[in-house]
Amino acid sequence: KTLGNESKVSVGENGSIILNEGLFFDYNSAAIKKESHTLLNELTTAFSAFLSDENNAKYVDSIVISGHTDDRGTATRNRELSTERANAVLNYLLGENGAKLAPYESYFCAAGYGSTRPVESNETRAGRSANRRIEISIILKDESVLAIVDAYLRQEMPDAVNAASATPQPGA
């Protein structure tokens, strides 16, 4: 089954799920439009099915819901609005549709980036529209990198480092 349609949902070059901001929010508002609930419920169901499979979940580090704006307005307001919108989507996904994602809430987080990560030029109406979006990114664990980091952290520190850390510092 495909989620939504291309005017509502697309997949970015980086693999992120991109939600069209205009569908979800009115101008300068973080209140999710009622007509967006069906699509968000479909996303909830899809994430629940995906994360309930241990073979999938073991590779997921986090699922980041990020809000983005165009460059109209102040940088401060754009950061606030993008954060409010990302949190609104996160709270909807975790709390609605029978709270299907409640068992997986530790995977989810939200972030607002304001206008700092445009995907198009803000010089045109179409570009500004593309920049106003919610992106959902699944951050995967890289087992080989985790093994390297784990091995590094288990190494014993060289004697010089151990001696320096054992020497009392002034004011300590």
Distance between the termini: 62 Å
The portion of residues assigned to helices is: 40-55%
Mean pLDDT: 85
Strand order of the largest sheet: 1-2-5-3-4
Indicate the overall shape: globular
Low-confidence stretches: 1-6
Largest sheet: 5 strands, mixed
Q: SSE order in H/E notation?
A: EEHHHEHEHEHH
Total beta strand runs: 5
Class from helix and strand fractions = alpha+beta
Structure report:
- The chain is built from seven helices and five strands.
- Helix 4 (75-95) links the parallel strand 3 (60-68) and strand 4 (108-112).
- It has helices at 21-24, 37-52, 54-57, 75-95, 125-131, 143-154, 159-166; strands at 9-11, 17-20, 60-68, 108-112, 133-140.
- Strands 1-2-5-3-4 form a five-stranded mixed β-sheet.
- It is α+β, with helices and mostly antiparallel strands.
- The chain is 42% helix and 17% strand.
Salient structural properties:
single chain; 7 helices; alpha+beta; 172 residues; five-stranded mixed sheet; disordered N terminus; globular; 17% strand
